[in-house]
Amino acid sequence: MKTGRKRKTLNTGAISIGTIVLAFLVVMSIQIFKLKEKDEAYSQLESQKLQEYEEETQRAQELVELEKYMNINNKEFVEDMAKSKLGLAYENEIIFKEREE
After folding, report:
1. Is-contact 89 83, C-beta < 8 A?
2. What is the pTM of this model?
3. In sequence order, which residues have a C-beta less than 8 Å from that of residue 70 and are 6 or more positions away?
4. pLDDT single digits (tens) 47-89
5. Pair 72, 79: CB distance under 8 Å
């Protein structure tokens, strides 16, 4: 009779350990799946931020060029502003305006 009890105890222990290992594997599988989803989301965010960075770098370059053009000592810029904003022109200059349809 003692041998029957030992086998029952061993089977119960093995089942308990197997259940714990199985539960651990399920939890780890779920965590791995969640981490893969986060990784994909971060990859998309990274590519979006890189694109924004490139756009802002290009915009900064355009602003540097505009700053050079708008230099107060630049006669061409002053003439353009006088013509477009104030409607001024030289004495011998004729201005043609397009008709708006």
Report:
1. yes
2. 0.51
3. 77
4. 999 999 999 999 999 999 888 877 767 788 888 888 888 878 8
5. no
